[in-house]
Write a structure and sequence with these properties.
It is a single chain. This protein is mostly helical. Helix content is about 55%, strand content about 0%. It starts with a helix and ends in a 16-residue tail after the last helix.
Length: about 120
Amino acid sequence: GANLLDRAERYGDSKWASLQAAEKTLKAAITLEGAKFKFSHGLAGLCDQLNALGLKFDWKPLVDSIQCTPGIRYGEEKCNRDEALAAHRASLRLVLALRNAGAKLQSGLAGPSSAH
């Protein structure tokens, strides 16, 4: 979030942070399903794995907004403010989509958990 407001226009860093958040969330959901995740920054593969585990959700438009390469941090991939903001929003929507699909996440981002 902070990189979106940075005057140095570090939009690539912001989008990379959104990817990292989404990746960690997807991997946590896979682990909570009792499976082992693949070591990859490819969100589509992780989402496919979750679909195979029975968690069905419309992830493609979200992943399309978030997915980027590590080089985005160094200007090797272009990213403007709108793209960074879209990735940020999509990463939050991804958490909600996972929760709605039945993921066992207990994140404060997705609201209070019913299991206390």
